[in-house]
Amino acid sequence: MEAVKATLAHFVIDARASRFTVQAFATGLLSKMGHNPTIGIRSFSGGVKFDPDALQGSEFRLAIQTASLGVQDDISDKDRREIESLMKTQVLEIAKYPEAVYEAPAVTIHKLADALYSATLNGSLSFHGVTHSQPVTARVALFGEMLRASGEFTLRQSDFGIKPISVAGGALKLRDEVKFSFDLVARKQE
User: Fold this and answer.
1) How far apart are CA 78 and CA 181, in angstroms?
2) What is the pLDDT of residues 108-156, one digit of tens each?
3) Cα gap 64→16, rounded to integer Å
4) What pLDDT, on the 0 to 100 scale, is given for residue 50?
5) Would you state the CATH architecture of domain 2-189?
6) pLDDT at position 128
7) pLDDT, greater one: 167 or 92
8) Domain limits of the chain?
């Protein structure tokens, strides 16, 4: 087993070259007047070990700083501050839960074409003080010393003890399900 791990190249995520967002969806009587906020995740780190020749991957880990989440939509500064304040204090409770971590000890890799792969991660997400299994599928492209992985997954906030935001007496609220989209760039480390 150790001989296999020694052949895996270590790739570290470059957050500045990556994109990671959360899409929330409005519901309720006034949802047509509300919007579906897109939240950018600005501070995260992690990496994966990967061998494209043996089609093996392991030890994927991603840590997100919850305080780094911010509204990306083109809205007024007042609305942005209000949404971010609610999100950070009442929804994410960033003082109590400053980090969310996704870990997958093994990654299943399938070659799709030259330098293009499909990766399946059966990992666990520790978020808001709760840990649940969270499968993730990604398309992976390998460009020499750089790896790029993209995909999306959904989760229900209530599974992690989070109550979706509700305003105007419940006439406008966010759905329980949110969609995460990622386009991660990772660079090979020596």
Assistant:
1) 26
2) 999 999 999 999 999 999 999 999 999 999 999 999 999 999 999 999 9
3) 14
4) 87
5) Beta Barrel (2.40)
6) 96
7) 92
8) 2-189
Higher-pLDDT residue of 3 and 58 is: 58
Query: Rounded distance, CA 102 to CA 127, Å?
Result: 8
Identify the bridge partners of residue 131 per DSSP, sorted by sequence position.
Answer: 126
Residue 69: which residues within 8 A CB-CB, separation 6 or more? 22, 39, 40, 41, 42, 84, 87, 88, 92
Distance CA 135, CA 133 (A): 7
The three-state DSSP-derived secondary structure of 65-107 is EHHHEEECCCCCHHHHHHHHHHHHHHHCCCCCCCEEEEEEEEE
Euclidean distance between CA atoms 157 and 176, whole angstroms: 5
Q: What's the Rg (C-alpha) of the chain?
A: 18
Give 17's contacts (C-beta < 8 A, 6+ positions apart): 185
Residue % of the chain over a pLDDT of 70: 89
How far apart, in whole angstroms, are the C-alpha atoms of residue 22 and residue 9? 29
